[in-house]
Design brief:
- With 151 residues, the protein is mainly alpha-helical.
- Helix content is 60%, strand content 3%.
- It is built from 8 helices and 2 strands.
- The protein has helices at residues 6-14, 34-44, 46-57, 68-80, 82-87, 89-98, 101-112, 118-134; strands at residues 18-19, 30-31.
- Strands 1-2 form a two-stranded parallel sheet.
Length: 151
């Protein structure tokens, strides 16, 4: 594996994320997307990268979603919802706790690979979930919503 930027190695270790070579299939808590981590760090800063890692590595069932697509997607969403991330961080993380990011990635890959950029289509899928949780209809969902849970 090529030499890894010390900042990326240090920050990843803080979130218990192991950096692995491209020839190995990642297990939960491992990523091959070292270049993406470095690009995000250089483009948006350390605090932003920490929030990306916190959003994926510290929420329920999302430690297996540490690939380039999901890292960039979450980076985009953090920039799209800055007020939510900055002022309601616990609610943001709780929303990701409830999201089946891995399942949505699977659907995204199966249906849209080669058709659209996966980063953007996954962002759309996750945004719909975020909007339902925090948007104007969050307190009074649509009666006919297919995701409405019956007691």
């Amino acid at each position: 594996m090529a030499e890894i930027d010390a900042r990326i190695a240090s920050i990843s270790a803080e979130y218990d994320v192991s950096l692995i070579g491209k020839s190995k299939y990642p297990e939960p808590g491992e990523t091959r997307a070292v270049a993406s981590l470095l690009h995000i760090l250089n483009a948006y800063g350390e605090g932003h990268l920490r929030m990306v890692l916190s959003t994926l590595a510290e929420t329920e069932n999302n430690r297996a979603s540490l690939d380039a697509v999901s890292l960039w997607c979450v980076s985009d969403l953090i920039r799209a919802f800055p007020q939510l991330v900055e002022h309601e961080t616990t609610a943001w993380l709780s929303c990701f706790d409830a999201m089946p990011v891995g399942e949505l990635q699977y659907v995204n890959n199966e249906c849209l690979r080669g058709v659209v950029k996966l980063r953007h289509s996954l962002a759309g899928m996750l945004t719909e979930r975020i909007y339902r949780r925090f948007g104007p209809r969050a307190t009074q969902p649509d009666l006919f919503d297919d995701r409405r849970r019956m007691p």
